């Protein structure tokens, strides 16, 4: 027997928790599926210093826990599991958690986007201790030291340029012998005296003292030779992948997979389905912008449900 909900929120993090807070205060009694990583990307971030209201900074996991408790205080219900399949072609919408079926009058998608990593053991060891996937979030902590950005596209060039505001030197590490970035971004990087391009290399290992990053071991993609490069920070600039696999073929997306919305609203291509946070934001990907769109999604959902309250659905 399907369990029917007025509003289901898929995904946690700043967008999901903020949407839940606003929806709960609007008496929508939301049910939120937290997914495989409750709290989202911020749970693997150490200090968050650019979220308003915390002048001394706050740990990422602590910020997410506070957001969750605030949403819970107003009646949000949580499932520590993920939605594995959806059918958005009919109403009420059908959502499956493995074999369990839920139906919903409205859905907010806040499944986020995952940073692409190199997938080497030492990288995971030093995540949050010198290895980062967000220069905008963590660049401030690397004042006056040498860092590296991994990647050769526009994302890597943007990250490298941003980091020159803080770091004394920024190495751009790319596995090919030429960059993939647009010409204007390449030119900007090459003209910056703080940026040094290191081409035809991969990171064989992230080096550290057990507590923080102390360097990287580079491996040549041409002859396999290795050398160590001392530095204090490693930033992934190889892009993000939106967590939209289960929505493919059902919701409009861009060519990378980010959900498209009818800005400035959070309406997706299917009426009654809304998207908030990084899942529909390839540009900013900040906790505060995600939270803002979560608020917008909840208000959009509340208004939409109010306008369609008397509809009879199949």
TrEMBL record:
Q: What is its EC number?
A: 1.8.1.9
Q: What's in the keyword line of the UniProt record?
A: Disulfide bond, FAD, Flavoprotein, NADP, Oxidoreductase, Redox-active center
Cofactor mode of binding and number, as noted:
Binds 1 FAD per subunit.
| Reaction catalysed by this enzyme | [thioredoxin]-dithiol + NADP(+) = [thioredoxin]-disulfide + NADPH + H(+)
Annotated ranges, domain FAD/NAD(P)-binding:
6-294
The top EC class is: oxidoreductase
Keyword Nucleus in the entry? The reply is: no
What are the required cofactors?
FAD
Return the PROSITE patterns for the record: PYRIDINE_REDOX_2
Share what the entry says about its subunit structure, partners included.
Homodimer.
Q: Which PANTHER family match?
A: THIOREDOXIN REDUCTASE 1-RELATED-RELATED
Q: Of which family is this protein a member?
A: Belongs to the class-II pyridine nucleotide-disulfide oxidoreductase family.
- Put simply, this protein is called Thioredoxin reductase
Which source organism?
Anaeromyxobacter oryzae
Q: What is the lineage of its organism?
A: Bacteria, Pseudomonadati, Myxococcota, Myxococcia, Myxococcales
